[in-house]
Each structure stands twice: as C-alpha cells, then as structure tokens.
Amino acid sequence: MEQPRRSPRDWIVDSVVFVFAIVLGLLIFDDSAKASEGMRVLDVCLGLALSLTLWFRRRWPVQLALLASAVSVFSEVASGPTLILILSVAVYRRLRTTLLVFAVNALSLAAYLQVKQQADGPAVAVAAIAIYIATAGWGLYIRSRRQLLQTLRDRADRAEMVARLQAEQGQLRAREEIAREMHDVLGHRLSLLSVHAGALAYRPDASTEEVADAAEVIRASAHQALQDLREVIGVLRAPVGELPQPSFADLPALVEASQAAGVPVELQQDVVGALPDHIGRTAYRIVQEGLTNAMKHAPGERVTIAMNGAPGNGLTVEVRNPAPDRRRGDGQGLLGLAERAALVEGRLEHGRTPDGEFRLSAWLPWPP
User: Fold this and answer.
1) Which segment of the chain is annotated as a signal peptide (predicted)?
2) What span, in angstroms and rounded, lies between the C-alpha atoms of 364 and 347?
C-alpha cells in the first residue's frame, strides 16, 4: 500500500527526532571506556547508521526496533535512536507488539551488560529499564490520545452524515407534502373546470348569456387554479410549516364553489366546539377529495356531506354520492387521504355501499 507523503510538519518532526537521537546517543557514549580505537569508531558509526533509519520509523517501526535491540548490544550511541524506535512502536502498533519489542530490548540490555562487563551494571540496568518504561508509557499515551481524537472525529463525521440524511428526509417529506397540496388544490379546481366545460359541450342549444356565464366561471376557475399553482410552487424553498393550508372555516366556501359549478351538494353539520387546526385541515381535505372524486366519476349527481363531533368524541366526516358501475383513476388521492388520517391518528374508509353509493368516511380524534 502506498504510504502517504510527508507533510511539512512531518519533515520538521523527523528532523528534530533525528538530531535529538544523535545528540542523546553521543551524550551516553563513554569515550573514556577501555576499548580500542576501532571499537569506539565502530560504536559511533553503528549509532549514526541506526539514527538514519529513523526516517523510516513510521513504515517499519517494529523491524527497526528489533534491529536496534541487536545494534545496541555493541553500540552505546545506538541508545538514542533505540529509545525513539521503542517510542514509535508504542505509538504506531498495538500494546502486545509494544510489550514484545520491550522484552527483546530488555534482553539486549542484559547482553550489553555482559559484553561491557561494567562494574555498575545493576544500576545501569535499573536506570535503562526505567527509561524504557517511561518511553513506552509516553508512546502508549500518545497512541491512546490519537485514538481518542480519531474517535471524536469519527463521531463528528457520523453526526454530520446523520444530520445530512435527516435534512434529506425532511426535504423528501416536504416534497410529499407539496405533492399532496398540489393534488388536493389543483385536482378540485380542474374538476370544476371539467364540469363547466362538459356542460357547454352537452348544451349546444344554450343561450348566449348561459354560455357567457359558463365561460366566466371557467375563466375564474382557471385563474384561481393558476394562482394556487403559483402559490404552491412559490413555497418550494420555504419550510413545510409555511405551506398555504386551509382550515375548517373554509369548508362552506368550498361547498359554495362546488354548488356554483352545478354540483348539487348538501352539507349537514353537527359540530360542537372549535376544532384543532390539524384536525380541521384534515377534515377539509377529506371533503375536498370527496367532491373532486364525485365531480370526476359521477358528474351532476347529488353529493351528501355529513359531519358531526364534539371534543372527546372525535369528528366523523362522511361524503356520499351515487357511484357509477366502473370507477376510473389510480386512487392516489385516496391513498394520500389515508396517510393524512393516519398522521393525526385517525382512520379512513371508502368503498361502494349496498345501495349503490360511493361512501368516503373518516373518523378523526378530537381531544377533550
């Protein structure tokens, strides 16, 4: 696997480590020891050569640390780079590997004392072991700190990803809400247009005044549909809570608009108290979808709307109209209504009754 290139910070750190290892090794080196000139030169050369390997300590820390354990048996100058390599193993490798390298270097220390035959060997051994332990402990601390920081970064990345996914899901929900609004609003308006246009098509003998009245209604409905479309499209960048929403108080106007289009609508209300906004809005959409389906599938037939309810008992909404033998359409509006009712913990039912009517019924909770 290709190793990442050194950053400027890595070059600075490696340079400082290299110089530090050489200086530390030369300070430990005992030039007055009883050894031949050639052995002292070999000691220094081995230490400097081992120091050069520090430039590759990130790639091969274990291999170089084991090499250092062998070199340090014969070289005191190698003590400096050996400590750095022990530190590198503790930083870049697991605890088990660190303990193994520590044990090998402890054995090399014993071999070194046997080779040098120093009088103060036990004191040197205790001091060297203490330095090894401190170096390895420092390396393990650096490793644990880096792992902690990496864990925090990973958690931050995951939190950012979760937030992004939640935002995307929020956008999808907003688009679904807008799609429902477009279906409910425009579907009703276009159904009114269809009714008036159909009346003109089936009334070729209509007077000029009747044609003008129908054309005016078509023009007004088309203009209102265009306004509704612009209103919905205009809030695509707005929060979902700012979408234009009708209320239960707008229900009489909806019925009057359908009656003006020539649909015989009978509204029966027995509602006591003020409905919560979300319940009233859902009831409005149910009635609107019922009228739209009636105008689409049973044009000209009577539509009966019955609503009753009170706080604590819930609100019942029922829309009935004569049903044709075959119903067309994909039922997306009814699916949307079922979702709306489920969102407010209500229920929706629809289907043909034994007496040949299509019945759309819903029960919505109304807290006391």
Assistant:
1) none
2) 7
